[in-house]
Amino acid sequence: MTSKSDRSSFYTMGVDSGSLTGKAVIIDGNRQIVSHSVKQLGFVSQKAVMMAIDDALEKAGLALEDITYTVSTGYGRKRLEIAGKNLTEISCHAKGANYLYPEVKTVIDIGGQDSKVIAVDPSGNVKNFAMNDKCAAGTGQFLEVLARALDVELTEIGALSLQSDADIKISSMCTTFAESEVISLVAEGHTTVDILSGMHKAISGRMKGLVGRVGMQQPVMMTGGGAKNIGLVKALEKTLGVSIFIPDEPQIIGALGAALFANDFATGIRKKVEEEQDLDKSRVPAKDCASCSVQNFQLNKN
Amino acid sequence: MYQNLSSDEILNKLAQIAADPYERAKEWKMETGSKIIGCYIMHFPEELLHAAGVLPIVLQVKEEPITTGHAYYPAYFCGPTRSIVDQAAKGELDFLDGFVGGDYCIQAVGGAEVVGNLLPKVSNMFFRLPVGNQPWTHGDIVQGLEELKRDIERFADKKISDEDILKSIRIYNKNRCLIREIYELKSVHPSLLTSSDMLSIIKSSMVMPKEEHNEILESLLPKLQSKKETIKEEGVRVFLSGSFCGAPKNEILELVEQSGAVVVGDDLFHGYRYISDNIAEDREPLEAIAAHYIDKNTNVPCPTRCDPKTDWPQYLVDSMRKYKADQLVIVMAQFCEPHMFFYPDIKDAMQEAGIPHLLLEISHELDSIETIKTRLEAFVEMAV
Fold first, then answer.
1. What is the pLDDT of residues A167-199, one digit of tens each?
2. Phi, psi (5° rounding) for residue A291?
3. Cα B70 to Cα A167: distance, rounded to the nearest angstrom
4. CB B374 to CB A132 under 8 A?
5. Which of B234, B327, B331, B374 is the mutation pick for testing A, counting most A CBs within 10 A?
6. Are A77 and A106 members of one domain?
7. Class of B32-160 per CATH?
8. What's the gap between Cα A171 and its chain centre?
9. Which residues of A touch B370 (CB under 8 A)?
10. Does the CB of B188 have a partner CB in chain A at under 8 Å?
11. Which residue out of A133, A214, A261, A269 would a mutagenesis test of the B interface target, given it has the greatest number of B Cβ atoms within 10 Å?
């Protein structure tokens, strides 16, 4: 299989080593998305990150040596040796969100381990942000624990919760105490769908406080794995009183932003730190990709 | 003794003293057979205690988790007061001969009461420092100082003369001058010293004889002077504010610099707030000390002093401009009521002045360091 490496262009990669998932996005020199991948294996799993990178490269028909510059983000951002630079997921989500939706002013990111509200300027820079700073309450991990307590697949909880018209209140936002509270509600005979609905309302209430710290300006976009939960999105829209834009692949926005930053560094829009050394890092020996197939991917920008 | 050491070696020595903050005082007690007085946080006339021939030390927050102290002071009070209660409950303050509490905030008053009860063999005293800045405030502070002087004389079994106090004031003024010189150097060459270095310098000053500390600083200063030209300056310029009684955690200070920032100034208690102003040497000593409490609050406003003539938020805006700082990082001890009362005004002032700021509310039982790191890095990235 021939490499898709076109010398008239170049490729940069963004890698988001999140607390629960690894994500990789490759863009070309025209800043168009070439491929992306999301893999989940465990907490800040390096294996998941490498799998996501390999998968994204394979989909793009590229080898690692074809990547001019790589930027890493997420919890494990400092552990990725191939990255020339690492940036926080806050900067990267803002950049990625702005790319997909240039008018966006507020980004709500509910990830595996934390949640963030980011005020974004028209250039995709962070104007202000707030982040949950005490525990994992109201994050992906919180939802996973409660889904397990209710014996429901994580992917099903969003749609299931929309079937409820009850008003169950879950008062505790501590993951451990909320799990006990959910078990009590089950014991009292409440249905799973009603409890799920109550859970989403509780998270929305908490997010409203975080949004208030930054000051909400519309349009609002939601990113991170939490945005794939339609029940949570609807609850949040109701609590905030706004319509929220959800990208097709909300989990890759951080990696997309990182890939865009990598493009900035590669083209000299942004200055690389310790330039030579960093470039050397991204030129690690190519892995075998003899069986690559090319899959161009373009996110729906509507 | 310190003249042959390099600046790094001297700073390491100070860091060691700061890391184990009561050890040097205990050695001093063995060497001299004299008494040690522990001052609870935060404004104490150390000069007056020193004039009685005793060693005043400022009690320090320990970063270890609070255990025994839970039985005596609630978990929803600030870390600095709880940590000192915990140390007293564990018997770690039994080496003290005297203890002075104060009435700076409601948690400090209660904490001083509890510590006093937990140390029955230690002479328990109190420094009443009236708040405000009214025509009668100065006279009230003098009265508080006279009451403390009376108690200290009884404790030390020694009459304290004006000459004794003046002699101590001179030693303490010298210490403040030397540290301010270091601050001046750092404001021009911020990478010369890390914020952890500055913390070690101030914290060690609080827990060892000032004469000895002065000697160390006199050796350190020329070495820093000669080193300054070799330092490469880069990074986002940050001003640090808050933590006005307990020392901020070293781990947090290090994160600020690891995030790509350099600290160009601060108003921390374990920082510029402690040494901002000298005591006049040409006035009656107690009157001079009383005036110092009013004046130093004008230099670096303290929210516990309730001085209507000072404006902490405006002071911060002015400091940002003075030090050409790009960003403000606020380190707030969790449950610190005086700080929490002021924060909304600080937030408004920063927004109005267009100065980005980051609030880090730090609990004694440290929150996720990873989250704090991400927030600090994202904040610094905003300025790049």
1. 888 776 666 677 778 888 888 889 999 999 988
2. -100, 25
3. 39
4. no
5. B374
6. no
7. alpha beta
8. 27
9. 75
10. no
11. A133
